[in-house]
Each structure stands twice: as C-alpha cells, then as structure tokens.
Design goal:
about 350 residues; alpha/beta; Rossmann fold; four-stranded parallel beta sheet; about 40% helix; binds 6-O-phosphono-beta-D-fructofuranose
Amino acid sequence: MKVGMLTSGGDCQGLNAALRGVAKALYNELGSNVTIYGIRDGYRGLIEGDYHAMSPRDFSDILTLGGTILGTSRQPFKSMQTAEENEESKLDKMLTTCRRARFDCLVILGGNGTHKTANLLSEHGINVVTLPKTIDNDLWGTQMTFGFQSAMDIASQVIDNIHSTAFSHSRVFIVEVMGHKAGWLTLHTGIASGADVILIPEIPYSTKAVAAAIDKRQRSGKRFSIIAMAEGAITKDEAKMSKKEFKAARAAMPYPSVSYRLAEDLRSLTGQEIRVAIPGHFQRGGAPCAADRLLCTRLGVAAANLIREGKFGCMVAVQGDKIVPVPLKDVAGKLKGVPVDGELVRTARDLGLSFGD
Ligand code: F6P
C-alpha cells in the first residue's frame, strides 16, 4: 500500500505527533506492506509532484517536535480549479501526481481551507482521510482540533505574566489572541487566565461597554484590568455592515490591528494608560502540550485504522469521548463558531466577566 501524507495551511503544535501516530499504527499493522510518502509543503508538493519515500526512522523522536517535518504552505482553495492558458489546473496537477505516484490514499492534516481542497480531491476519486489541525478550533464536525490546547497554554501564560506588571503599574492591558474569525482561543484563554473582559467575533462589542466594565472594576478597588481580545473581534457598528463595507472599513483602519484601535478608543474615552501585548505566532510555535500529544496520537491511530478498513472521504473527529469519522462533504466550507449562549460564555458571565456587549 502506498500512502501519501501532507500537512497544509498554517502550522501548529502537534502536526509531527499526528504524523507519527498515523505512521506508527500503519507500520505496526502492515509492516513492509506499506510505504509512506512525505509530500513537501502541503498541496504545493502534490501539485508539483514533490514527494519522497519515508521510513519508520523518519517518524522517531518527533512526538514533541514543533512545526511539521514535511513543511507546509497556504494554497487558496479558490485557485485550485482555475488554469492559465495551456496549463492544467492545480487540481488536475494534483490528480496527475496521485496517479503517477500510484498513491492508494492521501492523509491530509489541515484546517478549514485545507478541508475544502481535501473534499475536492475526494470528489474527484482520490481516497482521502484527514486530521483536524488548527489553533483556532473552528473546524466544523469536531469538538476539538489539535494545536488548540497548546496555543491556549501559551496565550494563557502570556496573560498570567501580564497580571503582575499590570498590577504594579495600575494599567489596563489588551492582549490580542489569534483565532482568525472565531473566538475559541480567546474565550478559553480568557477564562483560564483570569482576564476581566473577553472580546470575541461572535459577540460584537461597544467601546463604551468595555470602558464601563473597566470603570466598574476600578470603583470596586481593583488596580488593573486585562482584556483578552480576539484578533477577529468586531464592534457592534461593524457587525451591521455588509461584507463589502466591512472590508473597506478595515482597509482604511489606521492601526496595525484591532487591539491598537481599541487602545486608542479607550484612551480617549477614559484617559487611562493602556498597553497592548500581542503574542502572535508565538502561540503556534514550539512543542505540543501533553494533552495535544495524546489527542494527535488518538487521531493518528484512528486515521490509520480507517485506511486499513478502506474507509475514505472522511475526517477523524472528536465527539464526546470518542474519535469518529465525519464525511468530508459535511466538514468542507463550514466554520464552527463559539455558541453565544453556550456553557462557556455563561460561565464567564456568571463570573462577572464582560464581553463588551
Ligand atoms: O489559522 C491559524 C492562524 O494562526 C490564525 O489564528 C491566524 O489568523 C493566521 O493563522 C495567521 O496566518 P499566517 O501564519 O499566514 O500569518
């Protein structure tokens, strides 16, 4: 059996642990009857026929290694089926590579964009099994993606450390957390690290409400406030805009990111000293936490089992205490946002946290 593996989209902690899980389980069950091919830099390698045969040794000692040994790249889904004159489309090139390499199946590790292309390949007859990767935790069909818990640990550590300096100086801090258009990482991090205000895309905020929350804390004798703000957070006014208006407004925004804009707005509203801290790609780097290593290993083994059973066209997903296959066609193109009246949001509100709404 020939299995091609690739990692695609933004990297995260646990990609190597997941590759190792798939490989170890396949080698364990199939021995020399399986050859694994590493496809370099995600779909780029599949498009260009850039792959190499791997051996069990390649998967040793990578359980705790950050990044991805295969490399990754972003290949927008919308460019997959378009072609220059006299050129094959990227999709056709990928199908050609699969045919020439005689891959029996592909194992694809990725997030939202990756899953749209994985589904496209599946619809064109390629046997595909995918694993849900992203620090954003915004993939539909799984309660948890790998990378998320490691990123949460890092972002939480940032907010933990901000506490002491915010206290010393009696300051308001905004910590901007990644997560793209979803608030999972900010919500989990904010609760885990004791933030006072949590701003997420799913709950549009008003600066006045944020200022009121800070004021309330100060009147109750608190020296500082910490705002955990998602990079994708939007104001109530922005929530009313059409997609086109929103794009134009953001393009004209004279700040590097939403947290700098909020800092300026709060400064002029409250006269307070505000500081911004942005951990950025720090949140995606380094070793996976133990919980992610466990999750990646479970997902990897589940993917290998599907391959052995000949079940394709699905993503291995976390549902309750089980790992289950979910059809790719159900996952592709859907975002999983934070439920605004879900248990976690209610927990935060019950603690007295503000969502700026
Ligand atoms: O999807 C993962 C993610 O880290 C998002 O949280 C973030 O918006 C984006 O990728 C950053 O992308 P890039 O690494 O291409 O700058």
